Prior knowledge:
Pfam families: LigD_Prim-Pol (PF21686). One of its GO terms (molecular function) is DNA ligase (ATP) activity. Residues 28-281 form the DNA ligase D polymerase domain. This is Non-homologous end-joining DNA ligase. It is an enzyme of class 6 (ligase). By secondary structure, the chain is of the alpha+beta class. It contains six helices and 16 strands. The chain has helices at residues 29-47, 101-108, 142-158, 184-201, 252-257, 268-278, and strands spanning 4-7, 10-13, 20-22, 27-28, 51-56, 66-68, 81-84, 93-97, 112-116, 127-136, 164-167, 173-182, 206-207, 219-222, 232-233, 292-293. The strands form four sheets. Strands 5, 6, 7, 8, 9 and 15 form a six-stranded antiparallel beta sheet that branches. A hairpin with a 2-residue loop joins strand 1 and strand 2 (10-13).
Amino acid sequence: MTPITEVEGRRVALSNLEKVLYPETGFTKAELLHYYAxxxxxxxxxxxxxxxxxxxxxxGPEGQLxxxxxxxxxxxxxxxxxxxxxxSPDSPARMVLVQDLPSLVWAANLVTxxxxxxxxxxxxxxxxxxxxxxDPGPPAHIVHCCEVALWLRERLAADGIEAYPKTAGSxxxxxxxxVRDSSSERTSEYAKALAVEAExxxxxxxxxxxxxxxxxGKVFVDWSQNAARKTTATPYTVRARPAPLVSAPVTxxxxxxxxxxxxxxxxxxxxxxxxxxxxxxxxxxxxxxSAAPLP
Length: 295
């Protein structure tokens, strides 16, 4: 019989709580749900009002992985949904919004990574986030991403834009910034221009094109996730990797001090102590006053 729990007055069905999702560490589905419930105060503001794409892995990272963009069958009626534009204006999608703790617990029970757009559903034509995904091509690794991130930080600051780093929860780093008065197209153009500039400034380290033959030993500065249709892993989401690694906000000092990939590898049980020590390092992104116009 599927257990039912009550979360802020909503009845949420939970299933297979004893299932081991991460055999490498023995991390169970119950532990995953506990992580999301106890991290909700930091996570929910980064999900709110953003259509969510679910990267589901119900049998663990070694099982089948699949994206769910449309509202999944069986979604409770109390979960908020919204129509969002697609490439064809005549066929909008209806997607889930994770607006509160009951919705978060329900979604976590699906066993999913949370991915969100760089715009809110109220104004899909306006980008409010700028993102760079720094993806290392072996033998490069996250230490090399840190060097690129520090260059991008200074370059963005020169344009009056403050960036905030987080681990990808896999190999690299993400940089996020709050922007205003921009479209996804304009944000993408700006991000691409900076990626090209980074390649010119750090030619032995950076590549701005996705071509696989160019990427070994370099950091791919992926600017394309600023496109309106693209999504990026949400801060604090657990990733479908061999261990329950989290896309974890980090300090710029941690980026500057990184000398080994292990220094910036954070698992689910690392996050509560980090929140106690630092709070939400990406909270400034949520303050409209921190949003900067693109030059």
